[in-house]
Amino acid sequence: MAEPCIFCDIVGGKYGTKFLYEDEACVAFADVKPMAPTHILVVPREHHPRLQAAAEEEKLLGRLMSVAAKVVKDRDFRVVVNDGADAGQTVYHLHVHVLSGRHFGWPPG
Ligand code: AMP
């Protein structure tokens, strides 16, 4: 049996999460613990544990970037993928963070 996955549950509609965007490949919804005034997660419907495991999925990865740009419209924004524990990944279902509404420093923490 597959491991439980919070994002698979959200994608499946288990919690009635409001989708800000959805198509056949992915959904977007607000992060529960926002790190910026706008903090949206773009999440593929299919379970891939992390970016490294989805490296061959060029079409899907392109879609995630395209949707990231669409959900923030024309504002300045930052896209982040935390891939693996040292990079800060906590949910092992591929997702793209889309952050906007404040200034972001560089280098990141
Ligand atoms: P990461 O640490 O890069 O794996 O990002 C996981 C993100 O998922 C974090 O920013 C969490 O705040 C967010 N998160 C975890 N559970 C939920 C949830 N049920 N609904 C929305 N966002 C969530």
Task: Output the keywords.
109 residues; alpha+beta; HIT family, subunit A; five-stranded antiparallel β-sheet; 2 helices; 5 strands; 21% strand; binds adenosine monophosphate
Helix content: 10-25%
Main β-sheet, spatial strand arrangement = 1-2-3-5-4
Q: Which regions have little confidence, pLDDT < 50, spanning 5+ residues?
A: none
How is the biggest beta sheet arranged? 5 strands, antiparallel
3D shape: globular
Quick one: CATH class? Alpha Beta
Question: What is the SS-derived class?
Answer: alpha+beta
C-alpha end-to-end distance: 37 Å
As a percent range, the share of strand residues is 15-25%
Over the alpha carbons, how many angstroms does the gyration radius reach? 13 Å
**CATH architectural type:** 2-Layer Sandwich
For CATH, the homologous superfamily is named as HIT-like
Order of helices and strands: HEEEHEE
Total helix count? Answer: 2
Find the CATH topology. Answer: HIT family, subunit A
Number of domains: 1
Total strands: the figure is: 5
How are the SSEs placed, and which strands pair?
Blueprint: H1 6-11, E1 21-22, E2 26-30, E3 38-44, H2 58-71, E4 77-80, E5 96-100
Antiparallel strand pairs: 1-2, 2-3, 3-5, 4-5
Bound molecules: adenosine monophosphate (AMP).
